[in-house]
Design a protein that fits this description.
The protein is 58% helix and 9% strand. The protein is built from 19 helices and 9 strands.
Length: 438
């Protein structure tokens, strides 16, 4: 009876439940799935209940990472959809480059104690004490946003008095209370302007495997403002509601601008749908306010979409793709993005490789019905241009606002280059602005 009571007391403790191998294995697989599908691929921190479990958790995640790489490689090899293939490749590249480390304090006789648990602490201890070729330790590397060390496993170290702005995911599997819990949350709640794959950090994710939320309210009342509305943590389901609201508002705005974004989802003809986006863009280019308003709505949708990853991937919202693709189409016409370098490289490539024979030249001339400009010595002879034919051709263009926007950006770029050479050419820019105003 004494042995039975001792055994019951021992296994009644939560720690015996949360350190079970099957449970740790399930959490390890879940972390690998989550960490590779987030919107903002920042740093991550896994918090375990003790040092032994911290090392075990590292082993489980490492094993799950290798298995996931194999699975993704097979899926990528057999996938026929190019867009899905790109997503698989991004996840594959991330997991391949992902570096992880165990960060726990050193103690006496730890080699024997960890060996008794079947764990190799020497590998982790040597790595924790080692400096890289630049003389940087693990802490410096983890705080460096560009360093591939993106996931650390801790139980006490780095939970307090530690700051890494790009730390975006906190995986909690340890009972925590009061100020320790608040400081742990603070590790992930920093915003950062550092872009990863073009995504900015707007929030932090707390993945709660232990259900510490019950203790969180008490900690917030003790160390927070006491105002429930000011709570720094909310359930992620609220983000999905905000995303759906943003989609509804964006859809209503597009209707007010003269087009129905859902129309492309009701037609199976992909090529017609792609062409329809130019019509959407032409509507938005009617007024500068239309374009600016659309960008505001699309920014909200994209930001919330990234924040809802990876869970949102299991609940398709095809309208998100419509807004994001339309934004790309809009940016391609008078883009504010820096595409000049790429355009210059393409231009150079064409100049070096393109050869036009006499027959092709005549064909092009005939096709353009008289408004072809004949190249002479690397320049264009404007005296050969038929402006009447050009005006008639422009009148038949289906999306005039797009043509005007592209022409405007082209002229602005040329004027900028001219004025860089000679500031006295400012008059050209003023004349262009008068034309645009008219």
């Amino acid at each position: 009876e004494v042995e039975k009571t001792r055994l019951e007391n021992r296994f009644a403790k939560k720690i015996e439940v949360i350190t079970r191998p099957d449970r740790l294995m399930a959490i390890g697989k879940d972390i690998v799935q989550h960490v590779s599908q987030r919107g903002y691929l920042g740093k991550g921190m896994v918090v375990s209940v003790d040092k032994f479990t911290t090392v075990k958790m590292y082993d489980q995640v490492e094993s799950a990472r290798k298995e996931e790489i194999k699975t993704l490689f097979k899926q990528h090899k057999t996938c026929s959809d190019e867009e899905e293939k790109d997503v698989l490749k991004q996840r594959l590249d991330f997991l391949r480059s992902l570096e992880m480390a165990v960060v726990i304090s050193e103690e006496g006789q730890e080699h024997a104690r960890f060996a008794a648990q079947g764990l190799d602490i020497d590998f982790h201890r040597e790595r924790l004490n080692r400096l890289d070729e630049n003389g940087h330790d693990l802490e410096y590397r983890f705080k460096d946003p560009s360093d591939p060390l993106r996931l650390v496993f801790v139980c006490a170290m780095w939970l307090t008095g530690f700051d890494a702005p790009t730390l975006s995911s906190l995986y909690l599997d340890k009972p925590m209370k009061r100020h320790t819990l608040m400081q742990a949350i603070a590790r992930a709640n920093r915003v950062s302007s550092y872009l990863i794959n073009g995504v900015k950090k707007h929030h932090g994710d707390v993945v709660d495997y232990y259900n510490v939320l019950d203790d969180m309210n008490q900690a917030l009342s003790d160390y927070g403002s006491g105002d429930d509305e000011a709570m720094p943590i909310s359930d992620k389901s609220e983000l999905f509601d905000l995303l759906d609201q943003a989609l509804e508002l964006g859809e209503a705005y597009c209707r007010a601008c003269g087009f129905e974004p859902k129309s492309v989802l009701n037609d199976d003809n992909s090529f017609d749908n792609l062409a329809r986006f130019d019509g959407f863009a032409d509507c938005l280019l009617e007024k500068r306010e239309y374009r600016q308003g659309f960008n505001v709505h699309e920014n909200s949708i994209s930001t919330l979409y990234q924040a809802c990853k990876p869970e949102v991937l299991q609940q398709p919202r095809p309208l998100i793709g419509v807004f994001r693709y339309l934004r790309k189409v809009m940016d391609s016409h008078g883009t504010t993005a820096d595409v000049s370098r790429v355009a210059d490289e393409v231009s150079v490539l064409l100049d070096e490789s393109l050869q036009v024979d006499d027959e092709t030249q005549r064909s092009l001339t005939d096709r353009r019905s008289g408004y072809h400009i004949t190249p002479q010595g690397g320049k264009f002879d404007l005296s050969k241009m038929d402006f009447v034919a050009l005006k008639e051709a422009f009148a038949s263009v289906p999306f005039k606002r797009i043509e005007i926007e592209d022409l405007k950006r082209f002229i602005e770029k040329k004027l900028a280059a001219m004025m860089k050479q000679n500031p006295q050419r400012m008059g050209f820019a003023q004349r262009l602005q008068h034309i645009l105003d008219d």
